[in-house]
């Protein structure tokens, strides 16, 4: 299960089916050609997402 504390590296390794969603939402990932380390929450906040947005992103990712 993906949480706000799941690292981007873990998401790309364990949940590759979610990478299109991340890319469409401008959240950097290795597949996008931008190596990133850190959590999903950190990456989303870097793009300006607030806590409510991040909750929605997590729900969406876990439904993919």
Task: Name some characteristics of this structure.
about 60 residues, mainly alpha, globular
Could you characterize the architecture of this molecule?
By secondary structure, the chain is an all-alpha fold. The chain has one domain. It is built from four helices and no strands. It starts with 7 loop residues before the first helix and ends with a helix.
H/E series, N to C?
A: HHHH
State the secondary-structure class: mainly alpha
Average of per-residue pLDDT values: 89
Helix content: 40-55%
Tell me about the largest β-sheet.
none
Oligomer: single chain
Low-confidence stretches: none
The counted number of beta strands is 0
Radius of gyration: 10 Å
Write the SSE topology:
Elements: H1 8-14, H2 19-24, H3 40-46, H4 51-63
Please sum up the structure shown.
This protein is mainly α and 64 residues long.
């Amino acid at each position: 299960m993906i949480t706000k504390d799941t690292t981007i590296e873990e998401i790309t390794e364990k949940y590759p089916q979610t990478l299109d969603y991340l890319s469409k939402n401008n959240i950097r990932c290795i597949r996008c050609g931008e190596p990133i380390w850190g959590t999903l929450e950190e990456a989303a906040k870097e793009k300006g997402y607030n806590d409510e947005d991040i909750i929605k992103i997590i729900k969406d990712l876990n439904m993919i």
